[in-house]
Amino acid sequence: MALNDDIALLSTVALFSDIGEDKLRLIAFGAERRRFQAGQVLFREGAPADCAFVVADGRFELTRTGRDSHAEPLGFAERGALLGELAMVTAVNRSMTAIAPDNAEVIRINRPLFRRMLEEYPEIAGIIRQRISDNLASLSTDLGRIADRFAG
User: Among the four 19, 20, 42, 82, which has the fewest Cβ within 10 Å?
Assistant: First the structure.
């Protein structure tokens, strides 16, 4: 796919929506495209994460290990979805498993690339920090609602 297509796709990702085209060009240029065949694993729950993925084509089935040690479906990540955003800034483990049910393609954004962009454009760090903070606050609210259902 052309660089301009990757830039256009990255601009649809909520985390990157306020980043200018010139900065997205740096990400797109340094990122790597990977293709997956049906049934291939993008990543496994618990594995160390050193990058994020933007779904460029197809979709990935997301699962998490449940209480009974069986995979519980979480849904699908489709075109434009960002998987593993925290891995771009810090060492974390994958919180779920992602498998391509059909042929799919991702854009891989590794931590060194993302950190280099933040160093060159420190004003972006504030935007990214706020987006990640908002996402964590939303997750915390969702977890609170779930906890309330079990407490009552």
Answer: 20
Q: Which amino acid, residue 127? A: I
For 17-29, how does the pLDDT look when each residue is reduced to its tens digit (9 = 90+)?
888 888 899 999 9
pTM of the model: 0.85
Interatomic CA distance for residues 36 and 11, integer angstroms? 23
Domain range annotation of the chain: 3-151
Topology of the domain comprising 3-151: Jelly Rolls (2.60.120)
> For residues 13 and 52, is the Cβ–Cβ distance under 8 A?
no
Beta strand extents in the chain (DSSP E only): 32-36, 41-43, 48-49, 51-57, 59-65, 71-78, 82-83, 92-93, 97-99, 104-110
Predicted confidence (pLDDT) at residue 9 exceeds the cutoff of 80: yes
Judge whether 79 and 59 are in contact, CB under 8 Å.
Answer: yes
Are residues 93 and 46 in contact, defined by beta-carbon separation less than 8 angstroms?
A: yes
